[in-house]
Amino acid sequence: MNTFRSLWATTWFRLLVGLAIGIVVLFVLAPAGLSDFRLSLLARFLCVAMVAVGIGLAWGQGGMLVMGQGVFFGLGAYLMAMHLKLADAGPGGVPDFMLLYGTGELPVWWEPLRSPAVTVILIVALPALVAGVLGYLIFRRAVRGAYFAILSQALVAAFAILLIGQQQTTGGTNGLNGFRGFFGYDLNDPANQRMLYFIAAAVLVGMVLIVWQLRRSRFGELLVAVRDQENRTRFLGYNPALVKTVAYVIAAVFAAIGGALFVPIVGIISPADVGVVPSIAFLAGVAIGGRATLLGPVLGSIAVSAAGSGLSETFPAAWTYFQGAVFILVVGFLPGGLAELVGRVRRLPARRRLRPDPTTASTTGITSGIDAPGPDTERIHA
Amino acid sequence: MEVIAAQLFAGASIGSVLLLAALGLSLTFGQMGVINMAHGEFMMAGAYTAFVLRGLIGDPNISLPLALVVGFGVGGLLGLILHRSLLSRMHNRPLDTLLVTWGVALVLQQLARDIFGAPNVDVPAPTWLAGPITVFGIGFPKARVFIIVLAVAAVVGISLVLTRTALGRRIRAVSQNRDLAEVSGISSPRTDDLTFFIGSGIAGLAGVALTLLGSVGPTLGQNYIVDAFLVVVVGGLGRVKGAVIAAFGLGVLQAFVELSLGASLAKVLVLLAVVAFLQIRPQGLVTIRTRSLA
Amino acid sequence: MTAVPRRPIRATLALAAALTMGLSACGGAKVSADGTAAANNAASCVDTSGDSIKIGFLNSLSGTMAISEKTVNDSLNLAAEEINAGGGVLGKKLQVVTEDGASEPTKFAEKARKLITADCTAAVFGGWTSASRKAMLPVFEGANSLLFYPVQYEGLEASKNIFYSGATTNQQIIPALDYLREKGAKSLYLVGSDYVFPRTANKIITAYAKEHGMEIKGEEYAPLGHTDFSTIVGKVRSANADAVFNTLNGDSNVAFFKEYRNAGLTADTMPVMSVSIAEEEVGGIGVDNVQNQLVAWNYYETVDSPQNRTFVQAFKAKYGQNRVTSDPMEAAYTSLYLWKAMVEKAGAFDTAAIQNAADGVTFDAPEGKVTVNGQNHHIAKTARIGKINGTGLIDSVWTSPGPIDPDPYLTTYPWAKGLS
């Protein structure tokens, strides 16, 4: 018990150090060292990382392979984009694309989004409601594992086709773009783009803190219990469906907030950002970083986004191979992600540890103390 | 009346394509719990096999029937390699197989792009499949009739293998109770290899058939993979009968909804119908009763 | 599992609160009252001091659109090579920065921003889908830089920061309709992919048909990437229109034409007029499936002119004898030369000077003489209706008497009132 305590103490300490480093990098080093263009790129990566934090909770802790986060990312993004379009159009105005391609009249369901307050509330509430109802229905019927993954894919496919098909009211394949202001601030002003970066960074840190608390709470333990032994948890008197739904809702809300911030930072949202393929791509960073760790998903997701941006600039074909290879190697041979690799290196006897790589060492410092779980134990009962 | 007949045929035709795409999946996913996202790329490999053979032989009248056989082999071989190298060590991690095979799918797509080029290639149809057959004044495209026949033949073939051969008994035994099968002297790795070979082979076959209907390009598989999984899930895991009902059911639904609401909305409604259906029957249409708490 | 000791969450809350507060009100300019953003405040970083000048090529080299956009990238590179061989622009060699749009509108916006602000290119050439152009438009307007867009599109746009070297609707769709009407088509069936261009095109076609007493027998949209056309072709068949107007995009054309032929329909029984199929696409669809069908563009490889012979020869010498040239490739090639002519007329590389000099700039393009319209930034182009021949190339069967002035908002057509 003593050894456990001291170990725990150090992990908790390491976590704090890691967070502190993260905050310094995000709030001091990055803004000081990066050009406006690179900073806004990083801001976009942070939005994607928000989705990853949620996936880390639902998948890493809860064992739900959420392959349809595009739906919630898209809901948040489109709600925000609709509001920005309406704000640009001015009171009583109609977004430009509706005049060009639609009837020139505002659909009723756009109307509430004129209000900034309603928009902000809806960005959180609508995905939460959708995920809550959907999740509870699905989990209550014990749809899980592969079924759940494929079901989420079907949903995201339907969502994307619907967005494309309703061109007059959603912008179709063009999506929504050409925003001038963000709650009154001019989006063309570099100072405002920096402000958006800081907002994104702060929100991301906030999400990590929330997940950290959740993992240490009774709920976090229940979630892991449901992942590893759903039936036993049920026999103990808990409602696994409820536990899973809560995690699913949190993941959905995080994705939606990521989407909502994505819109003013990137300046566009289109169905290409919410379909089946981007939904799977969200998982890549989480898998690579270590799905069951606290900071693994964040770091992995930012690394994948950065690699995508950098590698695709120079070698478009190599990028696809790289992405494929990463999925095969990491998920196939290292299910715990790079965090697991770090853990394995650490567990080697001291004498065999020749010159530990400084980068991996720092990653260790910021992985959570909760042990990475074994691989998914779900079996399909045919 | 003519419209209903035409749409029933269209539905059967869509269903037969879905069935060809899903039949192999139903084997590998259902019997072995492996979620193979690269299944679509095996179809693509089959389609490119048809393209290469037609280039070698020249006459599509001869190359297409040959491609059906070779395509089966190519798909099966790819499946065997994938299973041996990666999936055999992941049987207890079904969700992870999904992501690993997604990676394989990306690599195969890019390989196709590098070998055959990004643009679509043309695989001409045999002359004996050109144009329609007219029955009672309604024209039925021969290519589609051919695919329906092919799908039915594949179903009958698989059913016979599963129910009438020693291999089929082994496959069923392993899928129903792996441990008990092992104890009874069945080599489960060998059985899995064969199951994967057959399942992926059907994907190759489906790819060859698809050259009659659509484009042959690196992303061919992507167009079918989600639909194919839905068929398997709705049908019930590993049940050939379920897959058949699901494929034709979804095909007819798509065809009739499309008639009045257009293709986009039809697609959305079919997807949502599947989601709703799984609420009612989470285990699919046809299930094996087990005592396990699923 | 051992219970995790519970800690007060106060520390976390305090930290979170501090962070939120730390978000100082560091905002910049607000949107001005009249609704126009305080744009153009970003000073251009284009370096014109050296003996070279940077330009950007932004095409999808990966993803679903790579099939088409790679070819545009090829012809842009050809043009840049030729211009450099000829001494460059204002004595400066072109230094090309290539970026991959990856078929995603978001990527296009990001890469456009990179080309303008990080690479400091003087102008950017590229884009294909409407979605990619719409995504880049605010970036170019915000930074007051220039984009040259080489593809036919749905019109209803005229940004000061974009030059459109492809056809707008009155240079492609309306001539196509005129041709069909002239050939005696009294009724049409409209088939398109479900996105902006087909829907806008079909609105225009419907208005045109109403004005000229043609009947629209039906209008069908398929989701992008749709692979099963049995129902749609069935409807087309039973509607028995005089012609089909096809605005399908990409792969769907293959499935559509295979189904069309399988159903026993041919160019003789019911001709199809397509506006998105060029020489490059014919190979993938299969010549047998589209032979004798009609297309509408401004350029074909078979155009008989000295400029085109030089262009085709140079292209094949550089990229291989089996390659073909198509309308968007020619428009991209032309756009680089037009930019060169504008810069030389302006005597400077900056945006305002080029905008002022643009009007009336001409170039003897492979398609014929083109002239820039300084008002709407489109170019006057010759319309051509073509018929796909047995070798996969396209023969002109009708050519407009001269270049048609661009009219992206169709203001000169009374029946098109209320469309935009």
Plain-language structure description:
The complex is a heterotrimer of chains A (382), B (294) and C (420). Chain A has 382 residues and is mostly helical. Chain A has one domain (9-349, 357-365). Chain A has helices spanning 2-33, 36-61, 69-89, 96-101, 116-140, 145-165, 167-170, 190-216, 218-228, 230-235, 240-266, 276-289, 296-314, 316-333, 338-347, 358-365, and strands at 176-177, 181-182, 185-186, 268-269. In chain A, the strands form two sheets. A two-stranded antiparallel ribbon of chain A has the order 1-4. Chain A has a two-stranded antiparallel ribbon with strand order 2-3. The model of chain A is unreliable at 350-382 (pLDDT under 50). Helix content of chain B is 73%, strand content 3%. Chain B has helices spanning 2-32, 39-57, 60-85, 94-116, 142-164, 166-176, 178-183, 188-210, 222-235, 240-261, 263-280, and strands at residues 132-135, 138-141. In chain B, α1 runs parallel beside α5 and α5 (142-164) crosses α6. Chain B is globular and about 60 Å long. The termini of chain B are far apart. Chain C is globular, with a radius of gyration of 24 Å. Chain C has 13 helices and 15 strands. Classes of the chains: A mainly alpha (382), B mainly alpha (294), C alpha/beta (420). At the A-B interface, α6, α12 and α14 of A face α1, α4, α9 and α11 of B.
